[in-house]
Write a structure and sequence with these properties.
Elements lengths: L3 H13 L8 E8 L12 E5 L10 E4 L3 H6 L5 E3 L1 H8 L2 H10 L2 E5 L3 H12 L7 E3 L6 H8 L1 E5 L5 E8 L4 H18 L7 E8 L5 E2 L2
Parallel strand pairs: 3-4, 3-5, 5-6
Antiparallel strand pairs: 1-8, 1-9, 2-7, 9-10
Helix pairs in contact: 1-7, 3-5
Length: about 210
C-alpha cells in the first residue's frame, strides 16, 4: 500500500479541482534544495516507469527503413523512414511540431547518425533523442514500456514536474506512481531525500496540495 499521506494529498487535490470538459492529468511537483543547478552535471535527467501507468496514451514515433519499421506499424503512433527524416529537416516548423507532439522516439541504430545530424538540434534540447534498437528488433515491447514512462528533468530550476496519472485513476494508483517518482529522485540526487525540499500534487488546472 502507498504512503497514506500521499493518498490523502491526491484525494484532496482531486476534490478541490473543478471538473473540466477534458481529461485532466495529475502532476507531481518536487522542489529541490542544496543543488548547484548552474552546473549541468547536477541537473536531473532520468526516466521512471510508472507502476500504474500514465492513465492515457502518449505518442511514440519510430524511425526505420527495415524490419523495425514493418513491426512498428499498427503499434507505434507514427512511423518515419529516412526519407521522411530528410524532408522534416527541410521544414523546421513541421519538425518542431512533431517533436512537441511526440513523447518518445525510437530509431534503428544505423539511422542514428542521420537522425542526430538532421533532427538532433530539435530533439536534443527537448530531451527527446531516440532510443536505439537493432535493425531486426521488434520495437513493440519498448513502445509499450515508454507509454508508461515519464521523464524527470530539472534543467536550471530547482523543481521537477512529472505527470503521474489522470483524475479518472484511483488515488491509490496515482500515489503509487508518485512514490516511484520520489524513489527514483532519491536514487539519483547526491544526498537523496535531503535534496528534496517539498512535494506537491495537482491536476492540470487545479490547485496544488502539499504532500510533504
Amino acid at each position: 500500500m502507498p504512503d497514506e499521506r500521499i493518498v490523502e494529498a491526491v484525494k484532496e487535490a482531486l476534490e478541490r479541482a473543478p471538473k473540466r470538459n477534458f481529461l485532466e492529468s495529475v502532476e507531481v511537483a518536487v522542489n529541490l534544495r542544496d543543488l548547484d543547478l548552474k552546473n549541468p552535471k547536477n541537473r536531473v535527467n532520468v526516466e521512471v516507469l510508472l507502476p500504474k501507468g500514465r492513465g492515457k496514451k502518449v505518442k511514440v514515433a519510430v524511425i526505420g527503413d527495415g524490419m523495425v519499421a514493418v513491426k512498428a506499424k499498427g503499434v507505434a503512433d507514427i512511423v518515419l523512414s529516412s526519407e521522411d527524416v530528410k524532408k522534416l529537416a527541410e521544414n523546421k516548423r513541421e519538425a518542431k511540431k512533431l517533436a512537441n507532439s511526440v513523447e518518445y522516439f525510437i530509431a534503428e541504430a544505423p539511422l542514428m547518425p542521420l537522425v542526430g545530424r538532421l533532427l538532433g538540434p530539435i530533439l536534443g534540447p527537448r530531451g527527446k533523442m531516440p532510443k536505439t534498437v537493432p535493425p531486426t528488433a521488434d520495437p513493440a515491447p519498448l513502445i509499450e514500456r515508454l507509454r508508461n514512462t515519464v521523464r524527470l528533468r530539472s534543467k536550471d530550476k530547482p523543481v521537477v514536474h512529472a505527470p503521474v496519472g489522470t483524475r479518472e485513476m484511483p488515488p491509490e494508483d496515482i500515489a503509487e506512481n508518485i512514490e516511484a517518482v520520489l524513489s527514483k529522485l532519491e536514487e539519483v540526487l547526491p544526498e537523496g531525500r535531503k535534496n528534496i525540499r517539498s512535494v506537491y500534487v495537482k491536476t492540470t488546472m487545479g490547485p496544488a496540495v502539499r504532500v510533504w
